[in-house]
Write a structure and sequence with these properties.
mainly alpha
Length: 62
C-alpha cells in the first residue's frame, strides 16, 4: 500500500513539473521573441510539444 502511495505521489509531482514547464513555454511563446528550438531547449519540452502549444496560443501584442 505504501509503495502505491509513493508511486502515486511521484506521478503527481511529475505531472506538476510538466504543467510548470508547459506554463513557462506558453509564456515564452506568447512573448514571441524566441525560436521553437530555444524554447524546447530551455523548457526541456520536445520540439513537437512546443509546436503543438504554439498552435494553441498567439503572441502577445507589443
Amino acid at each position: 500500500m505504501a509503495k502505491n502511495m509513493d508511486e502515486w505521489g511521484n506521478e503527481l509531482k511529475q505531472e506538476g513539473k510538466k504543467e510548470a514547464l508547459i506554463e513557462t513555454a506558453l509564456k515564452m511563446l506568447k512573448k514571441g521573441v524566441m525560436s521553437f528550438e530555444d524554447i524546447s531547449e530551455y523548457s526541456s519540452l520536445s520540439l513537437d510539444e512546443i509546436k503543438s502549444l504554439a498552435e494553441k496560443c498567439e503572441p502577445a501584442a507589443t
